[in-house]
């Protein structure tokens, strides 16, 4: 699936009328699916944990005292007028592949910050995700991160936000404020269709065919909200043949997984390039 707010072809496809007609049905399906996905979330968000042995060759540095009191990985030209904040999945900011993504985004001309929103308390299989998420609410984190975004703005930077899993929810929360100019989310966790009513900036959604946390059905529901909001550009794509985590926790020796993750990264950078001036 590929849908774009500015794509005449997809608009003409007649999906819009279909989506409205099925609205009631979708809601029922969503509610019925909640119990099943609650179980899937636990495992899928923890699938394919980062391989810390892949560390090395990082272009950036660790900063211990970002505004707001965060530790973070920082890469790219500090003089750039365009900043990207990357919000991690539950494994946090130490993941080697996430840092590689940050470096690649910086190569496109951005100053990139990957904050440690968990203060070192990452989720792992020994922890209960329901308990952990209470301690690390993405909604609360978006409020706590205000000073960081304010500081970047004060430096004259316009800010884009890329979020993975947990970071997807963080990103839509920030996207409801005027602090960010553009958002891209990949395999988001606990993002709702209501969130799509409140986001104020261009939003890109990158999903996966086999994602049970944000299944294609849910991505379609985000789109059916966004297509009625003509003031917000959006883009959504569901990548075939991959699962939750595909964009930042992929198998680096599997050519298809690598190619798909590279495409997702390319689309995210394109989205930032388009809307971050
Ligand atoms: C995880 O925490 C929730 C909420 O406190 C609780 O209901 C659930 O039983 C816990 N699950 C496990 C496997 O301990
Ligand atoms: C990664 O991909 C390689 C090559 O396809 C495969 O042999 C290996 O089992 C995969 N590793 C995991 C953890 O899935």
UniProtKB/TrEMBL annotation:
The keyword tRNA processing does not apply. GO terms for molecular function: hydrolase activity. InterPro entries: AB_hydrolase_fold, Dienelactn_hydro. Residues 70-276 form the Dienelactone hydrolase domain. Keywords: Signal. Residues 1-40 form the signal peptide. Pfam families: DLH. Gene3D superfamilies: alpha/beta hydrolase. It comes from the Eukaryota. SUPFAM superfamilies: alpha/beta-Hydrolases. This is Dienelactone hydrolase domain-containing protein. It comes from Setaria italica (Foxtail millet). The lineage of its organism: Eukaryota, Viridiplantae, Streptophyta, Embryophyta, Tracheophyta.
């Amino acid at each position: 699936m590929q849908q774009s707010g500015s794509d005449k072809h997809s608009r003409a496809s007649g999906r819009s009328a279909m989506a409205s007609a099925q609205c009631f049905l979708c809601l029922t399906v969503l509610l019925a699916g909640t119990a099943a996905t609650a179980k899937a979330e636990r495992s899928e968000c923890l699938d394919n944990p980062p391989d810390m042995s892949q560390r090395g060759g990082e272009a950036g540095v660790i900063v211990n005292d970002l505004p707001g009191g965060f530790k973070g990985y920082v890469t790219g030209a500090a003089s750039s007028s365009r900043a990207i904040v990357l919000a991690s999945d539950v494994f946090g900011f130490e993941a080697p592949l996430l840092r590689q993504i940050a470096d690649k985004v910086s190569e496109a001309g951005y100053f990139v910050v990957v904050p440690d929103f968990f203060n070192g308390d990452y989720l792992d299989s020994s922890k209960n995700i329901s308990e952990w998420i209470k301690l690390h609410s993405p909604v609360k984190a978006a409020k706590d991160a205000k000073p960081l975004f304010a500081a970047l703005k004060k430096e004259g930077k316009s800010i884009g936000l890329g979020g993975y899993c947990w970071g997807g929810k963080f990103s839509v929360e920030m996207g409801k404020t005027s602090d960010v100019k553009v958002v891209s989310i990949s395999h988001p966790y606990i993002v709702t269709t209501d969130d799509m009513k409140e986001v104020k900036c261009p939003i890109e959604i990158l999903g996966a065919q086999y994602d049970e946390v944000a299944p294609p059905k849910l991505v379609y529901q985000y789109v059916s909200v966004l297509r009625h909001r003509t003031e917000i550009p959006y883009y959504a794509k569901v990548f075939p043949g991959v699962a939750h985590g595909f964009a930042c926790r992929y198998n680096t020796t599997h050519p298809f997984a690598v190619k798909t993750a590279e495409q997702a990264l390319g689309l995210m950078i394109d989205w930032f390039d388009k809307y971050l001036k």
